[in-house]
Structure prediction request, 361 residues.
Amino acid sequence: MKFALMSLMLNTPNAITGETFTTQQKFQNVLKQAVLAEELGFEAYGVGERHTAPFLASSPPVVLTAIAARTSRIRLLTTVTVLSVLDPVRVAEDYATLDHLSGGRIELIIGKGNDASHYPLFGITEEEQWESLAERYALLKRLWNEENVSWQGRYRSQLDNVTTQPRPYQKSIPVWHGSASSTFSTELAAKYGEPLYSSNTIHRQSKYKELIDHYRERLAFYGHDPSKAVVGSGAGGSIYLAKTTEEAIKRFRPYYDAFHGRLKAPHDRSPFKDLEDNIENGPILVGSPERVIEKILNYHSVFGNQVLSISVDGLTEAEQREQAEFFATEVAPVLRREIPSTVWENEPLAPHKDSITVQAG
Prediction:
């Protein structure tokens, strides 16, 4: 199994200390997380996209470019790119640029996002989200794979003979399809034969299993080999490790209570009655290393995922480092041995080292 550390750049008061990062401090915090993730051997670091407070993740390509400048190996993910509201021309340009600046380390996870408040900002309705996503992705693929593209659709102005610049550095920028709640996302992933990333955040395992099963079924329908399906998964949005499960629960409970107290939207409401219920029956990873490993193995047996993403946002900076290090040293090595992964087997492309000769005048 391979691992990604990720951030949605949520900036709220710490549930224990009451302290809040300034905007500048939160940006610096995310950069530190990414550097630490590379140092600890995580294979990827992801930045989400949200367009309203208390999130600061409105511009993932800019943040990921800053991370690219501070790292050399780790892959850079978007978790997720809210393509349902974005101009595919702008997306093609921004991420092809980042592809070059990172030396071919960028991979997109696309989706419609989990915050309906962004739709009025970008001029579409919530009812249009899936049609918009499908149309915009079809155009994005053409812009990256073709030159002199002519196109006409519903969600942006007509294009005539357009070749976006720069062209991507990678032969093909990898794209995953984020899946949280609907078979529309799994259908789109299957149609293109591309990897699926299950959010696995709020609901019971069975809900996400149904979506992943649908993805594999539809892969076969579209002529792709379901046995070669590539699936990634989130992990309940939170992780907290301690030497014993009892200690982990005690230390994490204030964070859990504060986070779930902020959830107001119907689709964000947890089906679990409390933290213990979530630990026992939900996706959250809280407990001893042995307990967390057992749970991840259980989810893998159902999902068949080769990649797992975790987040340490919301904790103090000291706890963020503690938890990332604990996971990297006590959990990840066991799972890398237990679960084979064909994802990210090769190192990212190295930047071209073209020499430039400057003649003296």
Residues 135 and 145 are 16 Å apart (CA to CA). The domain at 2-338 is CATH 3.20.20.30 (TIM Barrel).
